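Module 6 notes. Inverse folding takes a fixed backbone as the condition and produces residue identities as the prediction. Think of it as a translation problem where the source language is geometry and the target language is the twenty amino acids. Below is one complete input and output pair. Work through it position by position during the lab.
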């Protein structure tokens, strides 16, 4: 039995998930671009609930610092004063409905769509919700966007500098404040005739609670079309997938990647071993640096990545293992 309790009694994996959400607010909110008072760009977020009716009361937050509450029109308009990347979340009653990585000016003028599917009501009352996968479904629906952000990108940018081939996988140890917080795994399972791709994603806390998902993406991680999930040792089940709550990571140009190399031949030791790497650094926002350690020896081409603010490590991902032979374990295809 796995329980999600009140804020003072949450189990280990819940704390890890809340840490992920907290980190996303810190990285995506506190270090955004300053508003200058002159709105150069804008975009809209359309938020719909049951029967596509406007989801009045939903809250749209942007790393620029702007927060907009959705009214009867169902539309939230966001304004931007600077060029560059931004992170947007859409929430309703503590549920994360959608998250987006956008960049100005290329995404200026767009309308993003977020659809909310209410979680199934629990059979019990009070602050404690028990029942394994049902309990996790309630929590997971809020955090899927954040979880995918941490597996496939950092500050909205893809953390993969090379491609995976079918069957390849990488496992990661995610650290914050110098301590291990949780572990993730991602594997490219197979591609379909229409170009869609099945990926496997897993999360485990230090207390060994775990979640495994197999996700069908359109194209190269463009949008989620289908998902199956298993929590712990329970039977796998289909997860309802709606449009709009996943945004693909932004791809860096080859010129940008090569221009970011600050050192070559850097020795990096991570749980998966020692690698000779190129050190890449990007100033993703004032005071915030994304640092990647590139090596051709592993799938995805990265052995370690860090988000650093004023020489302080906010969080990092270290390669724990990698290899071939990954296959579906949830009978997804």
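Target side of the pair, the amino acids:
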């Amino acid at each position: 039995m796995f329980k999600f309790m009140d804020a003072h009694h949450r189990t280990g994996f819940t704390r890890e998930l809340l840490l992920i959400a907290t980190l996303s607010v810190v990285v995506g909110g506190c270090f955004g671009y300053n508003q200058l008072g002159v709105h150069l760009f804008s975009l809209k977020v359309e938020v719909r609930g049951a029967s596509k009716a406007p989801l009045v009361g939903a809250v749209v937050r942007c790393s620029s610092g702007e927060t907009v509450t959705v009214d009867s029109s169902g539309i939230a308009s966001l304004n931007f004063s600077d060029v560059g990347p931004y992170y947007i979340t859409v929430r309703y009653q503590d549920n994360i409905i959608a998250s987006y990585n956008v960049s100005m000016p290329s995404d200026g003028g767009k309308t993003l769509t977020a659809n909310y599917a209410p979680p199934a009501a629990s059979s019990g009352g009070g602050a404690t919700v028990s029942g394994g996968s049902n309990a996790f479904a309630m929590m997971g629906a809020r955090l899927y966007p954040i979880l995918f952000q941490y597996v496939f990108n950092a500050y909205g940018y893809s953390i993969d500098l090379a491609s995976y081939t079918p069957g390849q996988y990488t496992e990661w140890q995610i650290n914050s404040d110098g301590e291990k917080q949780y572990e993730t795994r991602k594997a490219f399972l197979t591609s379909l005739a229409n170009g869609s791709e099945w990926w496997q994603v897993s999360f485990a806390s230090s207390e060994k609670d775990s979640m495994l998902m197999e996700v069908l993406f359109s194209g190269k991680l463009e949008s989620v079309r289908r998902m199956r999930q298993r929590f712990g040792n329970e039977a796998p089940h289909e997860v309802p997938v709606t449009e709009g709550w996943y945004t693909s990571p932004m791809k860096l140009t080859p010129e940008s990647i090569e221009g970011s190399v600050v050192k070559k031949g850097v020795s990096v030791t991570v749980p998966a071993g020692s690698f000779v790497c190129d050190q890449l650094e990007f100033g993703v926002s004032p005071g915030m640096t994304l640092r990647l350690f590139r090596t051709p020896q592993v799938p995805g081409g990265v052995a370690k990545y860090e988000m650093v603010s004023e020489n302080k490590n906010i969080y990092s991902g270290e390669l724990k293992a990698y290899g071939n032979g990954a296959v579906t374990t949830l009978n997804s295809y």
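Reference fact for the lab report: The domain at 3-153 is CATH 2.60.40.1120 (Immunoglobulin-like).
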